[in-house]
Specification:
This protein is of the alpha/beta class. It has nine helices and 14 strands. The strands form three sheets. Strands 6, 7, 8, 10, 11 and 12 form a six-stranded antiparallel beta sheet that branches. It has a five-stranded parallel beta sheet with strand order 3-2-1-4-5, sandwiched between helices. Strand 1, helix 4 and strand 2 form a beta-alpha-beta unit. The protein is elongated and about 65 Å long. The N terminus and C terminus are likely disordered.
């Protein structure tokens, strides 16, 4: 049985129409780290490509298909659901590769191929790896068209996270309201903070902004993965702060690994690697939190597929106490929040509770930080 999931037509229509845009493809093509990773994975593993049948899922402008053709693939099926497929066919012809590359204008779930394939290539990754959930289409193609001994590029994926300090974000979005052309606009701080914490922020994070070593959230083997395994990802993480600083949120990023027969290639979106168009994803806390070197924080990071739009995920960050007590919930006047802790306890959980209550955020629940 296939592990794929069927999307509603309205969700699909919106998704595919967004890729009928030269600016979107220009952004991806100009992402040198991204594009070169695919190029190198194919060129360094010629035995996986030369004389082989290749399927490019969501081919866009066809650049990956062209790389495969240049590596002497016998046949490349370039499947693209958006209207960009008409221009992809033109580009293939302009580059004299129409004898090898066949452009198919269809969703991969609707495409018909005359044969099984040796290699599936696809650039399916979204922000924090899973946004847009194109991976589902890759799994469908794998189950229907990949030979038993076939390969998938990329082959593995990993999600990482670390607490982060982002003073520039808070200065731009929160502190700004204190003096607007000489006027006090601080009455907008709470509204601005609510908007800031309502959804993850896509931004560039420098490596020195991380307050702990990276923690692995999830490892994925794309050759064996079932889609239901990704409906909910939940991982308890124990962070040890390696320096003093101000924690503004949790940073999330990913890498993917192309496991070829000859050599492996890694494409990383980590803060210490060359910037990509994915940047990093930050879940912003409702209140900045001072931390000290040597502090511990136990938390749970969850990615939950949205039922009404399963191309999107809710990201939830929950802080637990040092002793493993229940998840942090902000409620005004609830003394039980500090249960098991001294009145002046300075653990991360108690400090965050006090900061939120002092700033009028007592009705905000950490389960709502998405």
């Amino acid at each position: 049985m296939s592990s794929s999931r069927t999307y509603t037509s309205s969700v699909d229509d919106t998704y595919f129409s967004s890729y009928f845009s030269t600016s979107v493809h220009e952004t991806m093509l100009k992402d040198v780290a991204r594009t070169n990773a695919y190029k190198q994975a194919l060129e360094l593993n010629l035995s996986d490509v030369e004389g082989k049948v290749v399927l490019d899922v969501g081919c866009g402008t066809g650049i990956l298909s062209m790389f495969a053709a240049k590596c002497k693939a016998k046949k490349v099926y370039a499947v693209e659901a958006s209207e960009m497929a008409h221009f992809t066919k033109l580009l293939v012809e302009q580059n004299g590769l129409d004898g090898v590359i066949e452009v198919i204008h269809a969703k991969v779930e609707d495409a018909e191929l005359p044969e099984k394939v040796d290699l599936i290539i696809s650039e399916w990754m979204g922000f924090y790896l899973l946004h847009e959930n194109m991976l589902n289409s890759v799994l469908y193609a794998r189950d229907k068209w990949l030979k038993k001994d076939g390969k998938i590029f990329p082959t593995y994926a990993h999600i990482f996270s670390s607490p982060v300090t982002t003073p520039s974000l808070f200065k731009e979005k929160i502190e700004y309201w204190g003096d607007v052309y000489g006027f006090d606009f601080s009455g907008l701080v709470q509204l601005s903070l609510k908007e800031l914490t309502s959804e993850p922020k896509i931004m560039t994070i420098t490596n020195d902004s991380l307050l702990t070593s990276p923690h692995l959230v999830k490892s994925i083997d794309i050759q064996t993965l079932k889609m239901e395994d990704l409906e909910r990802i939940s991982e308890t993480l124990d962070f040890l702060f390696e320096k003093e600083g101000v924690m503004h949120g949790i940073c999330v990023w990913f890498d993917v690994v192309f496991e070829g027969s000859t050599q492996s290639v890694v494409l990383s979106t980590a803060p210490n690697k060359p910037e990509t168009h994915w940047k990093q994803t930050v879940i912003v806390l409702p209140q900045a939190l001072s931390v000290q070197e040597g502090d511990h924080m136990s938390c749970n990071l969850s990615l939950n597929m949205v039922p009404e739009n399963n191309r999107r995920y809710d990201l939830t960050f929950e802080i637990e106490g040092q002793n493993g007590d229940e998840d942090l919930v902000f409620e005004d006047g609830d003394d039980e929040m500090f249960d098991g802790h001294e009145v002046d306890c300075d653990c991360v959980k108690c400090a965050l509770i006090r900061a939120c209550l002092q700033n009028g955020l007592g009705d905000k629940n950490d389960e709502e930080i998405k």
